[in-house]
Structures are given as structure tokens and as C-alpha cells.
Amino acid sequence: MSRIFPYPLLIVSLIGMWLLLTDFTPGQLILGIIVSLLAAQGLHSLQPSTPRLRRWDLIPKLIGLVLLDIIRSNIAVVRLILTEGHNKRNSGFVSIPLELKDPTALAILSVIVTSTPGTAWLDYSDSRGVLMIHVFDLVDEQDWIDLIKNQYEHLLMEIFE
Amino acid sequence: MSAILISWSILISQAAIALAMVLATTRMLRGPRAQDRVLALDALYVCGMLQLVLFGMRTGTVIYFETALIIGILGFVSTVALGKFLMRGEVIE
Amino acid sequence: MTNSLENMPLWLAIIISAFILLGGFLTLVGMIGLVRLRSFYERIHAPTLGTSWGTGSIVVASMILFTWLESRPVFHEILIGVFVTITTPVTLMLLARAVLYRDWAEGDEKSPLLKSQQKPPKE
């Protein structure tokens, strides 16, 4: 089973993308299935590490949390850019020690951190497990450390580890 | 009424994004360093993509969607290549 | 094409217009930030405005508009949204790491890597 369908999530999303780009017809569905199975075989021969999802039910919560956070920080950053010069704003680097080790979870965390305006992922040291981010409006370092650790790292660890 | 509302808001948004493209170009020309130019180029690609999506909405055809997707992909690949170049001075290691 | 812009209900038109205008506004503010902010590490935050909700709201507006115009669900624009959300962090991270490395190699005092006592390579 797992030899024919090595990456079910990848196959399903590739079929979905194929259908979106062409048409929702049975013929395209068959063609899409063939193409995505070939692509999955190709990926299988590269042998990447397979992510293991433990808690599917927490993913919608994560997505909702990220969307809310993006809206909130969008408003904050728009306000800061438009009032630039009128207020004193301090931006700086924050180092966060992470317990998260799973590469997929780290990749997802990096996407979350970077796509939220106001925080940018700069560097992650594998051996020390320390993440460095740049924060646009830095008031208290501890706030950001708590935010990343309690909100996202905790949730990602529950999903992946 | 609806048609007027939508066509005006598309027009205003297109003007805003055109202005955004001008600003990105300013940053690209001013620099001061290579990384600022690459960042501005990436932003310019995103603006161009949005401009095409809006253009597609304006004309009511879906053809521009594929163009926008291609511009997005090209922007991604070129920024990654430039980022690699800034890191090591070569693209393929 | 059975529906046209003329017979679209006003509330739908208002929703679409709001999304379109929000997208244009966010992208513009992002680029204003790109020009006005003073250091590179601050500037790297500016384009994410345009790529997160700027792109998102224009894509949503386009999806609603074409769903109405063609009287069938049109979702393919969501590919642009997904694509931009996935790729922007990758490019920004690559760029940020390249800049960190460049500042470090040049011995820039503002570089955070120098503060953590890592010596730049000797040329």
C-alpha cells in the first residue's frame, strides 16, 4: 500500500491542483491521478524524511490562530508604518530557545513566523536549538518569547511529536 | 450601480498598486546595498502579479490568471537564485 | 456567461469592492514601508503586508467575482494565494540569512551574530 501511495497528502493536493488548473471532468481526474502518482514515486526515490502527524484535529485550530495573528499584526504594522516618525519604535533581535526538533514542524513554524508581518525568521541553530527572529516593534523581549513558545511551539509539538 | 462600484474600486486599487510598483522601483534604484535591491525586486514581482489579477477581474477573463501564476513562480525562482548568490557568490553549489 | 455585473446585487458588489480596496491599500502601505524604513532588517517586514492579506483579499475578491460571473464555483485563484503564502517565507528567509552572513563576514557591529561571540572567517 505504502509503496503505491507513498505520500497520500502530496498525492491528494497534487490531484486537487491539477483539477483546479484544468477542469473538473473525469478525464482530467484520471490524468491528474496518473501524474501525481508519478510525482510521488519521484519524491519517494529522493527519500525525504516522512513527517508523522499525531493530532489531525488540532490543525484547524492552528490555521485559525495563524489567520487571526496575521490580521492582528497586519493592523499593527500598517499603523506603525503610517505613523513612522511620530512615535519611537524599537526594533531588534530576539533569541528564543526551542525544544521543537521535528524538521517539518520547524518548517511550518518558519512559515508562520515569516508570513506574519512584524516578525521575520532569521536563523536557527541546529546544534544549540536556538532560533533568532527579528521583531519590528520590540517592547518586551519576554513577550515575544512567550508568544512563540506558548502559542505555536506548544501546539506544533502536540501535532507532530 | 454594482458595475460602476466594482469598476471604480478595481481602478483605484490598480492605481494604488501601480504607485506601489513605482515605490518598489525607487527602492530598487536607491539600494543602498544589493540585498535591498533583491527585496525590492521580489516585492515588485508580487505587485506585478496582483496587478495582473486585477486586470483579469477588470476584463472578466480568466486568461490573466495563468500569467499571474507564471509571474509569481518566476519571481520566486529568481529571488531564490539571487539570495543564494548573495550568500555564497554562486548559485549552484 | 449568464450573470453580468449589471444584475449583481449591491451587497455582493460592496463586499467585492471592500476586498479589492483592502488589497490595494495593504500592498501600497507595504511598499511605502519599503521606501521609508531605515534599516534592511526593518524593511524585510514591509513586503509581507502585501503578500499576506494584500494578496489574500484580492484573490478572495477575484474568486467571488468569477463565481458570480460564470455561475459556477471558481476556485483556481486560491492557487495564487497558497503559492504566495508558501514561497514568500522561503525567499525572505534565504535573503535574511544571506544578509546575516554578509554583515557577519564584513564584521558589521550591528550584526547579531557578532554579539554572540562568533568570529568572522579570516580572509
Automatic annotation (TrEMBL), chain A:
Keywords: Cell membrane, Membrane, Transmembrane, Transmembrane helix. GO terms for molecular function: monoatomic cation transmembrane transporter activity. GO terms for cellular component: plasma membrane. The keyword Transcription does not apply. Its main location: membrane. InterPro entries: Cation_antiport_E. Transmembrane segments: none annotated. Coiled coil: none annotated. It is found in: Cell membrane. It is a multi-pass membrane protein. The keyword Aminoacyl-tRNA synthetase does not apply. Belongs to the CPA3 antiporters (TC 2.A.63) subunit E family. NCBIfam families: PRK08965.1-4. This is Na+/H+ antiporter subunit E. It comes from Nitratireductor aestuarii. The gene is phaE.
Automatic annotation (TrEMBL), chain B:
It is found in: Cell membrane. InterPro entries: MrpF/PhaF-like. Pfam families: MrpF_PhaF (PF04066). The keyword Transmembrane helix applies. Its main location: membrane. The keyword Cell membrane applies. One of its GO terms (molecular function) is sodium:proton antiporter activity. It is a multi-pass membrane protein. Keywords: Antiport, Cell membrane, Ion transport, Membrane, Transmembrane, Transmembrane helix, Transport. The chain crosses the membrane at residues 6-26, 38-57, 63-87. One of its GO terms (cellular component) is plasma membrane. PANTHER family: NA(+)/H(+) ANTIPORTER SUBUNIT F1, NA(+)_H(+) ANTIPORTER SUBUNIT F. Belongs to the CPA3 antiporters (TC 2.A.63) subunit F family. NCBIfam families: PRK06161.1 (NF004812). This is K(+)/H(+) antiporter subunit F.
UniProtKB/TrEMBL annotation, chain C:
Coiled coil: none annotated. GO terms for molecular function: sodium:proton antiporter activity. It holds the Pfam family PhaG_MnhG_YufB. The chain crosses the membrane at residues 12-37, 49-69, 75-96. Keywords: Membrane, Transmembrane, Transmembrane helix. InterPro entries: PhaG_MnhG_YufB (IPR005133). This is Cation:proton antiporter. It comes from Nitratireductor aestuarii.
